[in-house]
Amino acid sequence: MDLLSEVGKAALALFIIVDPLGNIPIFMGLTDKMEETSKKKVYNTATIVGTILLLVFAFTGTEILTAFGLSIFSFEVAGGILLLIIAIRILILGSMHENVDSPESLGAVPIAIPLLVGPGAITTTIFSIQLYENAVPAILAVIIVMAITWVILRYISRIYKLLGKTGSLVIARVMALLIAAIAIQYILTGLTHFMALTH
Q1: DSSP 34
Q2: For residue 100, with 0-12 CB atoms within 10 Å meaning exposed, 13-18 middle and 19 or more buried, which class applies?
Q3: Phi and psi at residue 134, in whole multiples of 5°?
Q4: Over its length of 199 residues, how does the chain's per-residue pLDDT go in tens digits?
Q5: Given its phi and psi angles, is residue 19 left (phi above 0), alpha (psi -120 to 50 degrees) or beta?
Q6: Residue closest to 124 by CA, chosen among 108, 112, 138
Q7: What is the predicted pLDDT for the residue at 124?
Q8: In the structure, how many helices (H) and strands (E) does the chain have?
Q9: Dist CA 48 CA 121 (whole Å)
Q10: Backbone angles phi, psi at 166, to 5 degrees
């Protein structure tokens, strides 16, 4: 029962951070000019890449950061800058459509990174291991959340149709504002902790 409770808490925290439902308008904006088969490739790639990345950090996150002499706060600053750029483009253009060579490229960046797996998701995964002193809850949480994300992305077109084009554009811009705020918070938090470590 303790393990189930730990997995539930870790999965809930990670799902809130990954936020696949809140990102639906952005995902649709990124893939609005694609065929349905290409969209499926994008979302499959995004889910696979996101899962692999989070599992890598679940197993070796602390060791990777230590090996390169990095702190989790550097991820917050870098991820925050990337998210801020995406948010600005959505606010100005109304979408974040990218001309890429393949659906797989778009699925990897920016959908998998940093929209699904950003500094928040990486931090949450690493903190889950430190909190529960066991990698099992964090690993199971990653698998559960990314499986749910895959299901949401699988039926994203139907959800998008319910919202309508105008509703989706409004939601996309509102989400862009929230993403911009989150990005600024990531940057400020990362810089604050970095300044604290250097003094």
Answers
A1: S
A2: middle
A3: -160, 135
A4: 588 999 998 898 888 788 887 778 778 878 877 888 888 999 999 999 999 999 998 888 778 777 888 777 777 787 778 778 877 877 777 655 555 557 778 888 888 987 899 877 887 888 787 777 778 899 999 999 999 999 999 988 887 788 776 776 776 677 778 778 877 887 888 888 878 877 6
A5: left
A6: 138
A7: 80
A8: 9, 0
A9: 15
A10: -65, -45
**Token duo for residue 62:** 């602390």
Residue carrying the six token digits 């931090």: 123
Would you mind telling me the total number of residues written for the chain in this entry?
A: 199
Q: Counting beta carbons within 10 angstroms of the beta carbon of residue 47, is it exposed (0 to 12), middle (13 to 18) or buried (19 or more)? A: buried
Report residue 183 as tokens: 């990005």
Cα–Cα dist 95/165, whole Å: 12
Domain spans, the chain: 2-198
Q: Which tokens sit at 169?
A: 């554009």
Which of 173, 128, 107 has the alpha carbon at shortest distance from 17?
A: 128
Cα torsion 57, 63, 68, 72: sign: positive
For residue 34, what are its two tokens?
Answer: 């694609």
Q: How far apart are CA 103 and CA 189, in angstroms?
A: 33
Helix axes 156-163 and 36-67, enclosed angle (nearest 10):
110
Sign, CA torsion 89/94/99/100: positive
Confidence (pLDDT) at 147:
97
